[in-house]
Amino acid sequence: FVTFKLLNNSGSQKNFHSYRKLTIMQTAKAVILRPVAAFFCLCLCIYCCGCGIIGSKQSAPSVSATVSPDGLVTKNQETWALATDPYVGSNNGMIVAVTETYIQICMNKQGLSYEVEPYSPSQGTSIVASGGGRLLFNEKIAAKYGYSVPREDSIQPRLDRWKKQDQQPQAWKQAQEKCSQEATKEPLAQQIEHDGGISPSSAQYSEPDGLKEAAQRWRKCMEPLGITDLAEHPDGIPSKSLYDKFNGVSGEVQYKDPFVHPVSAYELKVATQDARCRTESGYTKLQYETEWSASYVYVQKHLSELTALRQKSQKIQAKAVEFLKANGNYVS
Asked: Which of 57, 127, 163, 243 could share a disulfide with 255, CB 3.0–4.6 Å?
């Protein structure tokens, strides 16, 4: 994952589109990646994680404790609860809302309108995402959504708004570009972007014993589907051909959310079998147990620093909420 940046120093229109593309890739509301080959990272994150405490790759000792060292998280494989969840910092939706509110203020001063999607605390959650931002995948979810992000988590409304903006006169676009550059200089915008959340790779660890064997059991379980290019292990859609078949990615140019697609009966069948095979092979359990142990040990080791980071993050987020409310861009 790349740390979220609104614009680089040049602030060109090209860079503003890069910001948009990165926002799509990280997305304010929904996780847009399944657990992928970056299994060595502690979690996949929908949040904009600033510079935090960086750990080193290590074997994760098995931890029997079911409550995190700080008492904030209870172990739960179904929700993929990890001890590090409370420390990931601000979610991307809040960061975008704060920055775009500054753009709106700047544009309004010039007599120009600028629409901002109001921030809601629900933007930091998803019915299929863990507290740390990992997209959940089990038989219940697979049977309903397949490999698609739920439509209620889609960023399509944001893309629709950007499409309208890109149809504005050139003078409007130039004003927007300048206001975007100025917005990134605002202290609160900078603070909310770098508010002390830990990096997704803070608690790295080595591949756990037995994972390859579990992957082999998963492949055996998937054989009845007859997938000729089945992946070596269960990371997302289980083959490239199926990815191409299911996704039909339309991309940013067409202003379509590339992470939401129509789900066919066949996709639901494959996804449900995939989820069942992950469970029966022991792959999912082994993966979660390893991540829980690694996150537990990490929090235990860095508890004082993490506590300070969390307190700092909470104060900055409170300022952000106050700012958004004052400008009419907050919905409770």
From this structure: 163
| Alpha carbon distance 332, 325 (integer Å) | 9
Where helices occur in the chain by DSSP H, the ranges are: 13-26, 92-109, 139-145, 156-166, 170-183, 187-193, 211-222, 240-247, 265-281, 283-326
CB 50 within 8 A of CB 3: yes
What is the Cβ-side half-sphere exposure of residue 218, based on CA atoms within 13 angstroms?
A: 26
> Could you tell me which of 74, 114, 123, 68 has the C-alpha nearest to residue 94?
123
Confidence class of residue 1 from pLDDT cuts 50, 70 and 90?
A: very low
Q: What sign has the CA pseudo-torsion 316, 322, 325, 331? A: positive
Say how many C-beta atoms besides its own lie within 10 A of residue 217's C-beta. Answer: 15
How does residue 196 score in pLDDT terms, banded at 50, 70 and 90? low
Predicted confidence (pLDDT) at residue 11 exceeds the cutoff of 50: no
Mapping DSSP to helix (H, G, I), strand (E, B) and coil, where does residue 129 land? Answer: strand
Regarding pTM above 0.85, the answer is no
Cβ-in-10-Å burial (0-12, 13-18, 19+) of 332 comes to exposed
**Helix (H, G, I), strand (E, B), or coil: what is residue 319?**
helix
Q: What residues contact residue 85 under an 8 Å CB cut-off, 6+ apart?
A: 72, 73, 130, 131, 132, 295
The answer to whether 317 touches 195, Cβ cutoff 8 Å, is yes
DSSP symbols for 33-99: --S-S-TTSS---SB---S------B-------SB-TTS--B-BTTTTB-TTGGGS--BHHHHHHHH
Which pLDDT score is estimated for 121? Answer: 86
